[in-house]
Amino acid sequence: xxxKIMNEAFAVYGAAGCGRSLMPVAAAQLKQLSNxxxxxxxxxxxxxxxxxxxxxxxxxxxxxxxxxxxxHVLIAIADSNIRQKIANRLLNDGISLWSVQDRTTLxxxxxxxxxxxxxxxxxxxxxxxxxxxxxxANLYSYVEHDCVIGDYVTFAPxxxxxxxxxxxxxxxxxxxxxxxxxxxxxxxxxxxGAIVGMGAVVTRDVPAGAVxxxxxxxxxxxxxxxxxxxxxxxxx
Length: 236
What we know:
With 236 residues, the chain is an alpha/beta fold.
């Protein structure tokens, strides 16, 4: 067998609901690429190597210590701040961020997606879209044309992000939320660290750190601190 392939290790970091949902997508991607490696879980609650959903599971220090030149990790953690801390640790340790997408994902022309993306089944990303690192797009979400999405943004299932929307770093868009289409000279803005509640219909800009709910969406409250963790990398 190809020694280069066999000298690789692939893991999904996080074995809670997010990780267990993304593991079949990750495993299918390896199979589609004819890669013989089996993806494993990283779960820091473990002291000893174990199994989760019939897959090898170990803590991060055990994974880091594997005798393997090339390691690749998909971070399956919903909290974007934790996701960033883990990403920084992985990169500092020389471990690659692994991007995974389902075979049912539709990605159109002129799309740029940063490293570490987790794209679930039946997601659509339309033309001329730019997305930062460690993006999470859950089941049946879509991103329409000419959107710009920052780092560590999370879409829950069935998010409808229409054209000319700019979403800043660490924003969270809840299940079934609808973001109204902007225009080229006035895109709809979702500010840094904002939270759009489940089922919200967003028709106007959302300030940084705001929590919005309802139809049309209204500001419920603001978070106190919307500064991203250190070493944030922006796409603009």
